[in-house]
TrEMBL record:
GO molecular function, one term: NAD(P)H oxidase H2O2-forming activity
Descriptive protein name: NADPH oxidase
FAD-binding domain segment(s): 1-71
Oxidoreductase is among the record's keywords: yes
Pfam families noted in UniProt: FAD_binding_8 (PF08022), NAD_binding_6 (PF08030)
Gene3D superfamilies per record: Nucleotide-binding domain of ferredoxin-NADP reductase (FNR) module
Alphabetically ordered keywords of this record: FAD, Flavoprotein, Oxidoreductase
Domain named Ferric reductase NAD binding: residues: 77-245
Length: 264
């Protein structure tokens, strides 16, 4: 699991996020550290390459795969509920990017058939009409991993097809007196510049953990008589609760939730 493709089918590059989790990936990070820029204090271990630097050349890699994963069925659903816990957000970011690329592609077609010049055509119609993405992480610096994607969604998703919800669990709950100052500064900064002080993106960060019952209830109310693909990637501890709410709201409402999970 530490290796996750985070680029989308429409991208002209392959993007992979790798978590340092053991001796082998630790050594891999050391090799890349020799040719990458040193990480800053708020980057949460993220390394970036600089092709113009005088450092040694990037290592050569051999790729094996691809292999199937539960999240690959997302194109079958009109509505997506994507839930990532910590590093589990990585495969879901690929889905968000694919939905975003489809939005861009649709705009290009509307603006005069730029599709003909893009060189990229889909093999089948894109079903997804709405996507909810919930990312829950303890480390504030983790939001830097996908800052570009989040800002890109804010720039291009004018019809609000994609909803991004960031939750930082290392901060006290919203409404707690100890987090009041952070919340006040966050609101002032977001109103002034449109940038969140916690994630440094345009997506406002919530504190503590989501109320998953309210999340499922809101999706069910927004999409009656529709089938929702729920995709969870993260530690096993949350799997049971999410599956329970998916089953309960499928039984009590006209919305049907299909639950898929990938644990690590």
């Amino acid at each position: 699991h530490p290796f996750s493709i985070t680029s989308a089918p429409g991208d002209d590059y392959l993007n992979i996020h790798i978590r340092t989790l053991g001796d082998w990936t630790g050594q891999l990070k050391s090799v890349f550290a020799e040719v990458c820029q040193p990480q800053s204090a708020n980057q949460s271990g993220l390394l970036r390459s600089d092709p113009s630097s005088s450092r040694p050349r990037m290592p050569k890699l051999l790729l094996d795969g691809p292999y199937g994963a539960p999240a690959q069925d997302y194109k079958n659903y009109d509505v997506l509920l994507l839930i990532g816990l910590g590093i589990g957000a990585t495969p879901l970011i690929s889905i968000v990017k694919d939905v975003l690329n489809n939005i861009k592609q649709g705009k290009e077609i509307e603006e005069g058939g730029a599709m003909e010049n893009s060189g990229h055509k889909r093999n089948q119609p894109f079903a997804t009409q709405k996507a909810y993405f919930y990312w829950v992480t303890r480390e504030q610096g983790s939001f830097e991993w996908f800052r570009g994607v989040m800002n890109e969604v804010a720039d291009h998703d004018h019809d609000k097809v994609i909803e991004l919800h960031n939750y930082c669990t290392s901060v006290y709950e919203e409404g707690d007196a100890r987090s009041a100052l952070i919340t006040m500064l966050q609101s002032i900064q977001h109103a002034k510049s449109g940038v969140d002080v916690v994630s440094e993106t345009r997506v406002k960060t919530h504190f503590a953990r989501p109320d998953w019952r309210k999340v499922f209830k809101r999706v069910a109310m927004n999409h009656p008589d529709q089938r929702v693909g729920v995709f969870y990637c993260g530690a096993p501890g949350l799997t049971g609760e999410l599956r329970k709410w998916a089953r309960e709201f499928s039984r009590k409402t006209s919305t049907k939730f299909d639950f898929h999970k990938e644990n690590f």
